[in-house]
Amino acid sequence: MTDHVPVERLAKLAAEVLNSAYAPYSRFRVGAALEAESGEVFTGCNVENASYGLTICAERAALAAAVARGHAGFRRLVVATEGDRAVAPCGACRQVLAEFGTGLEVFSVAKKESLRWSLEDLIPSVFKLAVTDE
After folding, report:
1. Structure pTM?
2. What are phi and psi of 124, to 5 degrees?
């Protein structure tokens, strides 16, 4: 296992990618940087849609990029927003992230505030199905 990527570096990457967000409806741009167990970092931004249910959050975009590259274990996630207050991932993102384990450290950075949680704290009663090989 490699050393952790510094949180400051993850925060910088998340802040950079939020500039690519497509948020014409909410005007709430979000960037995320997800550190895989390998130390590789994947980024994502929110991509809104006129049919709001089809919007993808930054956290899930970063996760999808990591999974597409063969990763299934993650260490830390940093979410960056342009507002003053830090925000936690939405419930859908929490559930999707928890599919890969609840040991993930989650950080949120904003102009005037930074917060940290474990994913387990954010989703203590995660929904899980038993997966079997048949």
Report:
1. 0.94
2. -70, -25
